[in-house]
């Protein structure tokens, strides 16, 4: 028998244990091992029931994603699922950790499911641009009902065990630390009851309720249209469940599921989303900071500044149960900051996301103060004061004086030089950048900025801490704008140039929106506020943005910016903006030209990719996929296009380079191709092939 699956017998109960670390993915070896063990148990006349369980940290987390796109290896899914489902002896799945995707589908062909209280169950295939291809779309609605099933498969979210019990996905919860014992006891109980075994596929009661109600699906599509925009997988997941309701037989539903699964698997979106799954995990690996690097315990956090960013950053830690001391200069600013935090928590509570007790508990972890001396015992202090170097330096000199030895001193600066900030302290090895994104309590991305002298244990601690507070961390080197904003600046520059050449802002926005961004650059700036970093006294009416600010058109918050906004904050193209643009063009003496959608896209995105290449060649990002993780998590790059560097690889770097050269010849040095782009093309390589020199 295969070593990854073990068969033991506890008198009449056979226990099949899967042991395929780290997450017991259903590789060919695991499938083969389960099949052999279950067949042996069925054939053994002494065995009356079978328990299927996993060793290590989790139940089966799904199919082995690394096998996707390769020639299939036997045994196939159908054979494995059929043997379990048709077993004449009851099969009980014993679930701890996660039962996801193919893992849950396997559990659904078992006759019963027992789970630990902290287990989580889900069908997250949609996040890989797929649908559950092992019967999940046909069996799930038979257990939980159509509406709940639609929710589970299109969100990909994991249901906690308690909820799984309530909706019937799980039959019993096991006492702490006794999963296998509970599953064996459950199997004995079933044997004693001598009831006939029921297969999930035979239970149609919950489907009957939805028959003749196509509006369930139409309403669901309408309600989620914005969320699903651009993605292929959600619609195909919905269609499978619709088919479960409308088809005459279970097999018919399965056939549709299989067909749509194969279509998605062969398509570019799933390839991009699977790439992205591994990119996010790869970003956690830093070649010279190995996994076993010692880390600091972070039990108390200090935040300096309770403004837009400080408040949001503080919420991350309070929500993770870590006490936070927030220091401000003035009482009013502190009160305002704490009030904003409370109202954010209250809003979540009013939508059912938190109980009032949880809100109080989190607020109870926040301790406001007007003196930095209160940071003395903090393990980590994050500075989020005004973006001015002289203020940052003063603050870091104070932190150096006040904080205990070994405390990590972090800055949330969005572009200032972290080395220069660190240089005012006697402990630059403890200084690091933690660049959160606004709103900091919501956005998943955290750029961790490694200074010249930042110690490895400090980096390891911050990467680990990011996970604790639910962020996706990417390591970046010190440079202006780090990874994300440095590339964004390229897009901003081109968007602004385009409108002075003849494109209009609403066209630029439309092209980027259609590409898959949640909004285009002009809408985004209107939302953020056009006066960010703008000073009236220094304003020279030299750019469209300056003129808009001088007119008091500060963006959505003032009812007008590039766009005009109605009382419901709907954006309308503005004749005022049109006129300012036309005045600029007239003054320049050039005549506007018709600019195609294709050029708008290339002008906005190719320079970003080129900048990404420079970031890589300068060693400011470890690998191209890290850049993609930044753009997907921090800037709304559509995950079904993988990220800018992946996208460039798919287009072909030779094509990107050729276009950059063409733009360079006609539009000047903003388009000078990066040396790395030229080199990769000359070598016939992709960004994905690039490795930093050792
Ligand atoms: N296949 C192959 N490798 C996988 C895997 C999978 N299904 N799931 C996780 N891994 C790998 C990760 O790449 C990572 O490898 P690394 O250590 O070399 O980087 C390692 O396992 C640990 O994963 P995480 O770092 O993500 O560990 P966490 O503890 O944070 O999370 C988890 C665990 C919640 C299980 C998370 O890994 C996860 O969500 N996995 C994917 C689950 C999934 O998408 N399942 C559906 C697969 S598609 C399917 O089943 C098709 C079917 O319907 C036919
Ligand atoms: P903000 O102006 O909203 O808040 C700054 C707060 O710091 C104010 O409440 C101010 O009273 C306080 N403050 C100033 N000096 C102080 C001092 N010496 N001691 C204690 N408190 C002090 O600014 P915001 O937007 O929160 O930005 C803070 C930092 O975060 C800046 O470095 C900024 O570049 C960075 N950042 C901002 C982002 C954004 O979208 N707003 C995004 C990412 C980073």
UniProtKB/TrEMBL annotation:
Pathway in which the depicted protein is active: Lipid metabolism; fatty acid beta-oxidation
UniProt KW Transport keyword: no
InterPro entries: 3-OHacyl-CoA_DH_NAD-bd (IPR006176), 3HC_DH_C (IPR006108), 6-PGluconate_DH-like_C_sf (IPR008927), ClpP/crotonase-like_dom_sf (IPR029045), Enoyl-CoA_hyd/isom_CS (IPR018376), Enoyl-CoA_hydra/iso (IPR001753), NAD(P)-bd_dom_sf (IPR036291)
Domain 3-hydroxyacyl-CoA dehydrogenase C-terminal: 481-565, 600-685
Entry's localization field: Peroxisome
Keyword Transport: no
A single MF term (Gene Ontology): NAD+ binding
Name of the protein in question: 3-hydroxyacyl-CoA dehydrogenase
Lineage of source species: Bacteria, Pseudomonadati, Pseudomonadota, Alphaproteobacteria, Hyphomicrobiales
């Amino acid at each position: 028998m295969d070593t990854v699956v073990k068969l033991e017998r506890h008198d009449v109960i056979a226990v099949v244990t899967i042991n395929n670390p780290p997450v017991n993915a259903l590789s060919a070896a695991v499938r083969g091992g389960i099949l052999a063990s279950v067949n042996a148990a069925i054939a053994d006349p002494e065995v009356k029931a079978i328990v299927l369980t996993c060793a290590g940290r989790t139940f089966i987390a799904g199919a082995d994603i690394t096998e996707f796109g390769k020639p299939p290896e036997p045994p196939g899914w159908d054979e494995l699922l059929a043997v379990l489902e048709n077993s004449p002896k009851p099969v009980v799945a014993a679930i701890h950790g996660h039962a996801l995707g193919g893992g849950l589908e396997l559990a659904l062909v078992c006759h019963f499911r027992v789970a630990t209280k902290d287990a989580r169950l889900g069908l997250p295939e949609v996040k890989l641009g797929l649908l559950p291809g092992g019967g999940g779309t046909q069996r799930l609605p038979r257990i939980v009902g159509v509406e709940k099933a639609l929710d589970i498969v299109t969100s990909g979210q994991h249901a906690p065990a308690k909820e799984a019990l309530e909706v019937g996905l799980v039959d019993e919860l096991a006492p702490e630390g006794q999963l296998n014992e509970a599953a064996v006891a459950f199997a004995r109980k079933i044997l004693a009851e001598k009831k006939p075994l029921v297969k999930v596929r035979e239970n149609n009661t919950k489907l009957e309720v939805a028959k003749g109600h196509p509006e369930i699906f139409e309403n669901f599509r309408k309600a989620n249209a914005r969320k699903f925009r651009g993605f292929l997988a959600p619609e195909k997941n919905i269609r499978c469940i619709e088919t479960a309701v409308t088809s005459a037989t279970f097999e018919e539903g399965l056939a549709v599921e299989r067909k749509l699964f194969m279509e998605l698997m062969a398509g570019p979106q799933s390839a991009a989303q699977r790439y992205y799954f591994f990119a996010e995990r790869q970003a956690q690996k830093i070649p010279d900071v190995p996994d076993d690097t010692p880390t600091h315990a972070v039990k108390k956090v200090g935040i300096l500044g309770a403004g837009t960013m400080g408040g949001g950053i503080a919420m991350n830690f309070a929500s993770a149960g870590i006490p936070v001391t927030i220091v401000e200069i003035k009482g009013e600013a502190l009160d305002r900051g704490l009030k904003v935090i409370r109202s954010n928590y209250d809003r979540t509570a009013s939508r059912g996301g938190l109980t009032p007790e949880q809100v109080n508990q989190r607020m109870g972890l926040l301790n406001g103060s007007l003196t930095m001396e209160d940071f003395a015992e903090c393990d980590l202090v994050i500075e989020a004061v005004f973006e001015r170097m002289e203020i940052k330096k003063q603050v870091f000199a104070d932190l150096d004086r006040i904080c205990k030895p070994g405390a990590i001193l972090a800055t949330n600066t969005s572009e200032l030089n972290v080395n220069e900030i660190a240089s005012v302290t006697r402990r630059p090895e403890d200084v690091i950048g933690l660049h959160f994104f606004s709103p900091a309590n919501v956005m998943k991305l955290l750029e961790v900025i490694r200074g010249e002298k930042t110690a490895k244990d400090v980096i390891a601690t911050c990467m680990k801490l990011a996970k604790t507070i639910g962020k996706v961390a990417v390591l970046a080197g010190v440079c202006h704008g780090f990874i994300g904003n440095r590339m964004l600046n390229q897009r901003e520059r081109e968007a602004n140039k385009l409108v002075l050449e003849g494109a209009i802002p609403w066209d630029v926005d439309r092209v980027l929106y259609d590409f898959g961004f949640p909004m285009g650059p002009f809408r985004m700036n209107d939302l953020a506020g056009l006066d960010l970093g703008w000073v009236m006294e220094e304003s020279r009416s030299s750019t469209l943005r300056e003129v808009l600010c001088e007119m008091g058109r500060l963006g959505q918050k003032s009812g007008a910016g590039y766009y005009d906004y109605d009382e419901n904050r709907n954006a309308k193209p503005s004749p005022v903006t049109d006129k300012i643009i036309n005045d600029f063009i007239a003054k320049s003496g050039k005549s506007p030209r018709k600019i195609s959608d294709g050029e708008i896209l290339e002008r906005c995105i190719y320079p970003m990719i080129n900048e990404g290449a420079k970031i890589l060649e300068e060693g400011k990002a470890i690998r191209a996929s890290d850049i993609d993780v930044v753009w997907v998590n921090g800037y709304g790059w559509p995950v079904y296009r993988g990220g800018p560097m992946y996208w460039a690889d798919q287009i072909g770097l030779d094509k990107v380079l050729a276009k950059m050269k063409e733009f360079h010849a006609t539009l000047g040095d903003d388009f000078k191709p990066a040396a790395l782009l030229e080199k990769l093309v000359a070598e016939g390589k992709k960004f994905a092939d690039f490795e930093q020199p050792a």
